[in-house]
Write a structure and sequence with these properties.
By secondary structure, the protein is α/β, with parallel strands linked by helices.
Length: 221
């Protein structure tokens, strides 16, 4: 399920976009704090971002510069202004595409599908705290050192990185691994968690994967 972050201050448009994305089986989230958009994106780790130009506090051109410091996920600008005025500037600022308002939701979905297809690597690299996971090569990097993980270990770490600093239940791990053709039960999960901890300790002597008794596991910095 691809993750889409929606940056739009018109509540009616935001609601329609998110409802449409959910209908198409995307995991959609919008801004809750206009002062900390960059932080929210860093936590959510979206595969694609849609962004209006006219926004509270700062405009979209400001925010795209901030966002490009933390992610290369495709960005679609949504603008009520003339494409001739904003289109070239949007692309120069780092956007991948733009759509002029008003627009049909089917058109937006088509743009999203195309960009995600063109950018399959957008969801393969995830950065949390000082760690970077590449799920294409199953390697995790900390500062200047990297280590190879097994496919199962990489999936477990990716799940933790997708919900950084939140408790992830054992059921969620098992369900996700089962759907990805990795046969696993609680005992096997615990063994893989233990091996993953040992490998991470070679990169950093701090303990990052905490066991939350009766609930699951949590990534901490």
């Amino acid at each position: 399920m691809a993750k889409i972050f929606v940056i739009e201050d018109d509540k009616a448009i935001t609601r329609e976009i998110i409802q449409t994305l959910n209908k198409w089986n995307y995991n959609a989230k919008t801004v809750s704090d206009w002062q900390n958009i960059q932080t929210e994106i860093s936590k959510f780790q979206p595969d694609l971002i849609t962004m209006d130009i006219s926004l509270p506090t700062f405009d979209g051109f400001y925010w795209i510069e901030q966002i490009r410091q933390i992610t290369n996920a495709p960005i679609i600008f949504l603008t009520a202004q003339s494409i001739n005025n904003d289109g070239v500037r949007a692309l120069a600022a780092g956007a991948n595409d733009f759509i002029e308002k008003p627009f049909a939701m089917d058109y937006l979905i088509a743009k999203i599908q195309l960009l995600l297809k063109e950018n399959p690597a957008s969801s393969t690299s995830i950065t949390v705290d000082d760690f970077q996971l590449n799920s294409l090569t199953n390697t995790v990097k900390h500062k200047d050192t990297s280590i190879r993980l097994t496919p199962t270990e990489a999936i477990i770490l990716k799940i933790l990185f997708r919900s950084p600093h939140e408790v992830v239940s054992k059921k969620k791990f098992i369900k996700f691994l089962w759907e990805n053709d990795q046969f696993i039960n609680e005992n096997i999960l615990e063994v893989n968690i233990s091996r993953l901890r040992q490998k991470l300790s070679q990169l950093d002597d701090r303990k990052h994967i905490m066991t939350i008794r009766g609930k699951g596991y949590q990534w901490i910095n």
